[in-house]
Structure prediction request, 572 residues.
Amino acid sequence: MIKEERILLKNAGKINPLSINDYTKAGGYRGLKKALAMEPVEVIDELLEAGLRGRGGAGFSTGMKQRFTSESCLRCPQRYVVVNADEGEPGTYKDRIIMEQDPHLYLEGTIIAAHAIRSSQGYIYIRGEYQDSIEKTRKAVEDAYKKGFLGKNIMGSGFDFDLEIKLGAGSYLCGEELTMLESLEGKRGTPRIKPPFPAEKGVFGMPTLVNNVETLANATRILEKGKQWYRQTGTDTSPGTKIFTISGQVNKAGYYELPLGVSLRELIELAGGMRNGKPFKAALLGGAAGTFVDSSMLDEEMSYDNLKKKGATLGSGAVIVLAGEDSIARTLINCLRFFKHESCGKCIPCRVGTAQLLISARQLNDTARDKKKLLGEMIRDSGLMAATSLCPLGQSPILPLKSAARYFEDELCGLEN
Amino acid sequence: MSIKEIIRQFKPEHHNLLNIMHALQNSNPGNYLTKEALEETASYLGLTKASVYGVATYYTMFSLEPRGRYIIRVCISPVCEIIKAETIIKHLEKVLGIKTGQTSSDRLFTLELSECLGQCHKAPSMMINDRVHNCLDKNSIEEIIEEYRQMSKSD
Prediction:
């Protein structure tokens, strides 16, 4: 059976997350020390050549993002680093585990990123419900200031960086980077038109780097151990590990750090197999803004590119497993209800569309309708929403909807018994 | 601390609005933002009352209505739903004698629903104020509620 490879979670459960000394004794802040001895552009090259891809869900090259941010608007008086710690994708809690068990790991990555793009001010935007993550991060920031890893002249390098914590207040949408910036500025969480991307015009109109917690944790390790070492794990185009959070009908639901490219079958095995030996039916990969897959996908390599090629998503690394008797329609309806609740209402197609999709999905149980036609209309409408909404929320319902229809059309239309 | 003192812990900058609202709401035993608190915040940050109201009503964690001392947030995301969050909600409603969205007559509990709390490996889950409670069933719910009732007496 496959084994966990704890590169990021090496310290989890082994050190006291409230003790900066525990972290430094375990080798912490060595990556930062190395980074500070390098030119900012060399740090970016290191991440670029390591092949690190954003772990928030999109899988965009972290090095590229940092390069764009560092090279845009050279006359601007400030550039910012914003840590996306607004984890809210259903089925996902990988960032929470990092924040609760080893908060300095991503803090170190944040300071490295700040040096890379020459930023002197950063923000961590943490989901308001994540109380434990907030407290652990607060303590970590406080201690990092005391030990000279934050503030003026960090580790004697002449580099200054200040970091402040901002709290979310119960809006999923604020996990989307441009919406997060609006919220961070103290406004309602509605998306901005892009372009301009945050790299050009982010928080307070300045170039801004938005990186996810798990991404920054990876950056720490890459700087500490080097790109060659990092590339030994994972696949060519998706190097490194991923923290998967597997839940639902498995015996040992939990978080597992595995090399990218692992198969769903291997992950389920590691999670103790199907609960009470029930038959596997489906998995929802990547949360509500993710895709359903059936047993034909059990042996596919779970990497950004391969899953995309097969019409699926890796997303946040959430894996929700359904067994024989579980209803696809019910989980799909839950996802659609979620989108309706979280739509901010700025774009009409999303505001009206998410409500209509939920009504239609519930009508799939109504025997009087032509269900195949109804499902077809839902997919068409979700396509229109995707084309006409500003942010990923309006672009997401099509993902679970289309994939559910692809694998489970007969069941959704009540044609299978 | 008075409302003014709480607000003045922060710099008078617009981007501090959400953090200020959290601090104000947490300091109010009724777990909500009062009109006075919002007006004071607007004037401190140099914002219109309308824009502060807009922000306060946008985010689900803020309330403009008095709530109970303990806010119960039951997770209703797909994973908790598969593991039967519904029965948890119904049982809570029975134990507390209220419907979802309501506050108990002793003003101790408000029952709310929440999107994914990120506790999927220990579903079904809920939060009560800052604390997470996992692997819920009917028995554990009764024990937990009783624990908070006792706690409120000793405070």
Q: What stands out?
A: Chain A has three domains: 20-230, 241-323, 330-412. The longest helix of chain A spans residues 371-388.
